[in-house]
Fold each of these.
Amino acid sequence: MKIGKVLQQEREKHHWSQSELAAKLQISRQSISKWEQDVSLPSFANVVAISDLFKISLDDLIRGDDELMDKLTKNQKMGPAAKILLWAIGISIVLYGLSMALGLQADDVHSIIRFPLFICLIGLLFTINWRQFNRSLSKPAIIFGIIFLTLLLVPEIYGFVHGATEAIVSAVKGYWEGYHSLP
């Protein structure tokens, strides 16, 4: 919901006129009118003041207003997704160079990162705002997500099944050889 609509609902719930609310926020009545009509958006300082006045969390106040969220985050040089991508690429290049300097093979690196990868995946799954994430997914993003996860999981499933099969065959073979070597 747009912040102007939330502001108007809260103001009316408290039985305040636009002038009364403006006085409480120490701004002009025209500003309140413009916000409620979605003509303009409040500054971050005013959003915090509105949040405090109505005892509404900032998250509840601005989360549904994409235009306000864009305004409040436009000063960021880079969005969170871009930061994740760039940092991951940079760290990966450094770690690749380090693994080459240490003489590690691809299998060694894969074995070393398996557990931290699992822990990070669990952490990521528990820290994502899933409601917001689900709203942001388009059909092409869902299709690419399915393909990406499939390509990521196939080698893991193959390795798990292959490793489990080898362990079972080895155990059965050991049992069989032990059984036949009895007098």
Amino acid sequence: MKAPLFVRPLTTEERQALQVGLRAREAFTLRRCQILLASADGKTATEIAALFGCATQTVRNTLRAFAAEGLSCLTEKSHRPKRVRPLLAGTQAERLRALLHRSPRDFGKPTRLWTLSLAAEVAFEQGLT
């Protein structure tokens, strides 16, 4: 069995910053401050999760983030992917754009407005996807 995961000993400045974070408007910052202070007081991940009504994995993630980033882990990071690649190549994207500038009735559909599912269906029928 692995040893319980605890936060490293906090400096006076870190403890003060965490105390200030308990009054933060953002729930993310508040929760992380609560978790870190509870761990510094000797509570295990399971006890902290039960105390604050979160998953033990949330507690572990917080402790690991603090070990890696320090106090900067108190601000929520972007959830956007670091890289994205287009699903359609250049000519396919142009063909899709041209398709959407036409009426669905041009493709034998009983409506004049595009929906996402209708556009997907017609794009498949036209061989775009």
Amino acid sequence: MAYRETEKMRQRKAQARQRIVDCTFQCVMDGGFRSARITRIADLAGVATGTIYRHFESREELFAGVFRLATQREVDKVAEALATEGNAATRLETALRQFAERALRGPMMAWSLIAEPVDPKVEEERLKYRKAYASLFETAIREGITEGCLPDQDARQSSTCLVGAIAESLVGPLSPTQAGQNPAATPDNTDALVNAIIRFCMQGLTGTRR
């Protein structure tokens, strides 16, 4: 008689898989992908290491899945900000602020998603992540040009510049948030950094001082 998996067993497997994903996500939040060791993940999830490989073909596949999950959350937040009231310039400013403030609230996760050296499979997901942001910004810039609140420009190139500028200024090696370049984060200096980033980006988009 052929083996038939019961609904209860399917639920148990699904729950174990979700625990593995959740624990991997927590490890990345705490110390980046470099801290997400399979033995540690298994211990946190309460499973054997072999169980992880029954759910995921490899460590890289697990990390890529967690990367997709984390980046989709961030992209969705920017999309929500771009769907708020106001003209395109106002919505872009809101979205950029959302991006920056979330990154500064979770600096380790931001570094992991934007700059941490990762496996090739995860790097592929990172490229999709950047393209998703750029696509959202490009659409909004085109809308701004049509509305007349933004000057005529190469929307695709401008969107690429936005992604690069905000990523570098938040977590790149030249960012003031990097160790030794800035005192411990406080509301005042965090706000100042976010405001400086937004001002630079919006001046580039509008061609005016804000």
Amino acid sequence: MTDSERHIGKRKLLIESLREKGIQCERTLRAMMQVPRHLFLDSSLEDLAYSDQALPIAAGQTISQPYTVAFQTMHLEIQPGEKVLEIGTGSGYQASVLFHMGAKVFTIERQWELFRFSKLILTKLGIRYTGKFGDGTEGMPTYAPFDKIIVTAGASRVPPKLLQQLKPGGKLIIPVGEGIQKMTLISKKSEKIFTAKVLGDFKFVPLLEDKSV
């Protein structure tokens, strides 16, 4: 669990590169500066931890490219104290960034191996969150409504139950499509009125449904 001066130095360089690529939300960048990304990866990948690229984790999944993490987080405009639901815990890196944004974090993971790993690392780092093993498309109705929802896997469609669990005035960001996805920001104006804005092309692992638990 070492976070050395060398790691911190590499993290500063990464943050500066994200700023140069157009991430101008300083709150997002400060949160990412606080998260030791190398601890969410296998030790064999430590030298690549602060490169701006997606990297493999367990269960055939990936930890998102830092630019993608920053991009999604920035567009949600998360405020301290907001309830944020994450679909796809993965290694736990994005959940940690959300926590450092001041969010009350709720997160779902459908791969048991990743659910266990993320629970271990997030607990060790003192990240307070509510986690669930199961189908992310079902959301967490027990804790709804949420101020913000972030989906970290490519979806063929926007899961309707996530829209239902979003608070009026809230935002959901999700990559939609097959192969290359369209990053889509959905704003809930009222219980029946939504607006959507496409923010660009991204590539994610697919969002898998109907996980038996």
